[in-house]
Amino acid sequence: MPSPRTQFSLGHGGHQSPTGKPRKCSYTFLVPEQKITGPICAARGYSTDKDRVTRLDVAAVRDLLSKQRGEMETLKLVVDVDGNLVNEMKLLRKESRNMNSRVTQLYMQLLHEIIRKRDNSLELAQLETRILNATSESLRLASRYRELETKYSALSAVVNNQSVLIGALEEQCMQVYSRRHEHPPMGPPLVQVVPENIPVNVPRFTNEIQRDHNQRFVRERGSRSGPSPTGDTLEVQNPPERNFSTEGIGPFRDCLEAQEAGHSTSGMYLIRPDEAERPLQVWCEQDIDNGGWTVIQTRRDGSVNFFRNWESYKSGFGNIDGEYWLGLEGIYNLGRQGDYKLLVELEDWMGKKVYAQYSSFHLEPQSEDYRLRLGTYQGNAGDSLSSHNGKQFTTLDRDKDAFTGNCAHFHKGGWWYNACGQANLNGVWYNGGVYRSKFQDGIFWADYGGGFYSMKTVRLMIRPID
Ligand SMILES: [Ca+2]
Q1: Of the candidates 379, 389, 388, the residue with the CA atom closest to the CA atom of residue 354
Q2: What is the pLDDT of residues 105-160, one digit of tens each?
Q3: Distance 306 CA to ligand 1 centre (A)
Q4: How far apart are CA 325 and CA 309, in angstroms?
Q5: Which residues contact 454 (CB under 8 A, 6 or more apart)?
Q6: Nearest-CA neighbor of 340 among 161, 461, 224, 208?
Q7: Ligand 1 centroid vs 23 CA: distance in angstroms?
Q8: CA 212 to ligand 1 centroid distance, Å
Q9: Closest CA to 390 of 417, 357, 354, 409
Q10: How many angstroms does the Cα of residue 397 sit away from the middle of ligand 1?
Q11: How far apart are CA 465 and CA 74, in angstroms?
Q12: Mean pLDDT throughout 194-203?
């Protein structure tokens, strides 16, 4: 770039200096600075031509461009339409695929359903078969049960007959070996009641009997003669043990009065009936059937011997919190002070309890041998006591029954025997229910279990009529 003033220097030869040497001249041109306002072009002529062509071209190209643009638009539209079609196609394809898979799914479902239905129908058929089998099985069991019932009846009859036979044979043996000339006593007819209710258990023949009297009874059984009717092998000569004490709450007229006085728990109470000479200890049952029940007899474990004489049965014996007999005089005194009803509670060896209730109950005085007076029966144990209604009390040493012999001897207890009885609740306590004995001497209630089924527990209780 030149400075604002460009210097041009020109050399001039030929001149020489006075010193003999050629002289040199120099010129300096000052050129004013020229202002350049436009572009400096190196080849201006050619550019001008080119510029003119380009404008035409530009117009043409613009035309072309706009045409092409229009075509592009058209194409774009076409492309758009095509794109939409493609998309639609894609969607349709997708839908078709979905439909296919749905159809497959439905087909599988249908197959599954068909299989399931087939399974169901198979199961149904199996169930039907099973029901048919069960029905035939139950029919078979029912007929088997009937057979067993028949067998049971037959066996009961056999047991009864065999007992009679054994008795007869024993008597014959006794005649032969003891050379006794008098006829031995024949037993009373056996109870032949086929009870409506048979305690369900495995019949178990047992000779286990009352605990504290096992020895004696075994000995008696060993001799095969039974206890003598005179009872000299029993406790007749001994005063009966009795642990009745004067302890207890009371005295009240009876257990209902005790209950009404606010004593609502079952237990030992002291009572003194109106005409009684002395108070008596009793067990009051305040829990069942509204309470107020005076228990006059209990059997439950064979701990007390009930094969006793008249005096024992008159005055009572046993343990109030165990087995006991209140005493005929006491029961008589209770019964004469009001109107009483009687409840007999029986429990079999399966633990099932049944009841017999009599609408009224009292005893006649000793001068009438404590004759039993009963009202009408209701309950689920069966009525095995009404046949004893109006009968006097019989013990080993006081025969007031209708039988030629002494029923107390055969049934081994004291009771209002007829000839002899449908009930023997003061008999021998046998363990296990069904027992084997020469006579029907167990604690039986003929309408519940028959004559050779001994109850597990028994309670006789009385309560004033509401
Ligand atoms: Ca008699």
Answers
A1: 379
A2: 999 999 999 999 999 999 999 999 999 999 999 999 999 999 998 898 888 888 87
A3: 19
A4: 13
A5: 427, 428, 429, 430, 432, 433, 434, 435, 442, 443, 444
A6: 461
A7: 204
A8: 29
A9: 417
A10: 11
A11: 119
A12: 56
- Output the CA torsion sign for 173, 175, 178, 179: negative
Q: What angle do CA 465, 250, 258 make, to 5 degrees?
A: 30
Q: What tokens were used for 405? A: 């012999």
pLDDT band at 297 (very low <50, low <70, confident <90, very high): very high
Distance 78 CA to ligand 1 centre (A): 133
Cα–ligand 1 centroid distance for 169 (angstroms):
23
Sequence-separated contacts (24+) of 31-39 with Cβ below 8 Å: 31/5, 31/6, 33/4, 33/5
Question: What spacing in Å lies between the alpha carbon of 288 and ligand 1's midpoint?
Answer: 37
d(CA 393, ligand 1 centre) in Å: 11
pTM: 0.56
Distance 187 CA to ligand 1 centre (A): 11
Q: Which of 271, 366, 288 is nearest to 326 (CA)?
A: 271
Residue 457 pairs in a beta bridge with 347
Q: What are the tokens at 271?
A: 């009572």
Instruction: Report the distance separating Cα 152 and Cα 360, nearest Å.
Output: 36
What would the two tokens of residue 105 be? 């799914």
Q: Which two tokens stand for residue 417?
A: 């025997």
The length of the chain is 466
Tokens matching residue 291: 């309470």
Burial class (CB in 10 A: 0-12, 13-18, 19+), 459: buried
> What are the angstrom distances between the C-alpha of 301 and each of 8, 137, 298, 417, 429?
163, 41, 10, 23, 7
Separation of 441 CA from ligand 1 center, angstroms? 16
